[in-house]
Amino acid sequence: MVDPARLVASATRIYGDQMDYLWGAIEGIPEYAVRNTQDGEVIQIGALDLRVVETPGHAQHHNAYWLSSERLLFAGDIAGVAVGSGPILPPCPPPDIDIEAWHSSIAKIQKIDPDRLGLTHFGLFTNPKAHLKELSDRLSTWAEWMKNALRAGKSEEVIVPEFQQFAEQELLRSGIGEKGVAVYEQADPAAMSVTGLSRYWKKHHPEALAISS
Question: What is the pLDDT of residue 205?
Fold first, then answer.
């Protein structure tokens, strides 16, 4: 946050020449305004106490924040992307996707047992158990799909349109329609997840990618 060069470089891999159009100039935050936190630490904001919940998986530096007085977890991206009552999708951008860590973070949230989840993308959700179960199942399905595509010797250029079709059909089966699919594609682009999940397998489990005969 103080020096966002790595963050900008990572985002540029996803958004390319659209970076300036989408985000404008990106500058660091003054060091005096940044505070490092630890898992379980309590942050006081006025009369409210927020507990830091370290939740890697979507990104290695990801935290959620637990407002116990309201039984509300501000979950960020670790609890997925959802538009209205549509499906729960795992956002899988490079470079830090870690499937095992993500499942562990989901289990950690389940143990907290919040009544509500606050998602950055988008809004409040009041059935955390079903929400997290759907997210966990889809994360496993997407990861397995990507592993099989890589094991077949396919390049990312070949995989992207195939995964886009796979994800689109999954969304259409949920009943959200073509307009809903377009909204989800903006919120959680399929190509982004191809890059992130491919990197995960190549970095963490290269042995699983031996090309099948």
Answer: 96
Separation CA 130–CA 132 (nearest Å): 6
CB 191 within 8 A of CB 107: no
Q: Residue range 80-100: average pLDDT?
A: 94
**Stated pTM of the model:** 0.90
Assigned token pair, 173: 């089966």
Of 3.40.50.1240, 3.60.15.10, 1.10.357.10, 3.30.420.10, the CATH number of 37-209 is 3.60.15.10
Domain with CATH 3.60.15.10 in the chain: 37-209
CB crowding 120-152: b at 16 or more within 10 Å, else e: eeeeebeebeebbebbbebbeebbebbbebbee
Burial class (CB in 10 A: 0-12, 13-18, 19+), 204: middle
